[in-house]
């Protein structure tokens, strides 16, 4: 029997190392990890999605994306035939964005985000922000791979300006009820993970390892 190819796309600026604890039965599935690339000048999200989808070498793959990676795999599915699209800690349309992101779009406040700070997390983590934020900075330090300011500015803008308002009913959406980036109250039609935060791909990996095979095969 041919194994099912499953491509994984990490979240904004993250490396595929966020999937290090995810394992699917090797007899049935082949896991392929994708990475972010630096956008070309004036590259739109659909153009970027087309470029990344050119890296897909299997017919009818499963695409799994986390956060901004979830938005990207939905765009990639416009260019290739897919068996399934699964998004984690993400959104299916811009209508699921929290109010602050909608306001950022209207006011263009997202242009003020100091992405240079993200690019230099080591210096940021020298400051004491309290236990919770320092823990998160340690995570970022480990998993944030793309420190290029051009990529970070581009990615923030692509998220905020994402225009999709009609959800693809075939997309499977897995979301945590404690997600502070995309609060659950704005999310429609999803599989809810109790206690799941925006980084639950890291700390709820047992749930994913147990349930992803069934979800893919359904």
Question: In one word, what is the shape?
Answer: globular
Radius of gyration, in Å, reads: 17 Å
**Nearest-integer average pLDDT:** 90
Work out the number of β strands: 6
Order of helices and strands: EEHEHEHHHHHEEHH
Fraction of residues in helices?
25-40%
Q: What's the number of helices?
A: 9
Query: Main β-sheet: number of strands, strand sense, barrel status?
Result: 6 strands, parallel
Strand order in the sheet with the most strands: 2-1-3-4-5-6
Structural class: alpha/beta
Distance between the termini: 17 Å
Describe the structure.
- This protein has 218 residues and is α/β, with parallel strands linked by helices.
- It is 36% helix and 13% strand.
- The chain has a six-stranded parallel beta sheet.
- α1 crosses α2 (68-76).
- The longest helix has 13 residues, at 131-143.
- The chain is globular.
Mind sketching the topology for me?
Blueprint (H helix, E strand, L loop, with lengths): L3 E6 L19 E5 L11 H9 L8 E5 L1 H9 L7 E5 L10 H9 L7 H5 L1 H4 L6 H13 L5 H12 L11 E5 L14 E3 L6 H4 L1 H13 L1
Parallel strand pairs: 1-2, 1-3, 3-4, 4-5, 5-6
Helix pairs in contact: 1-2
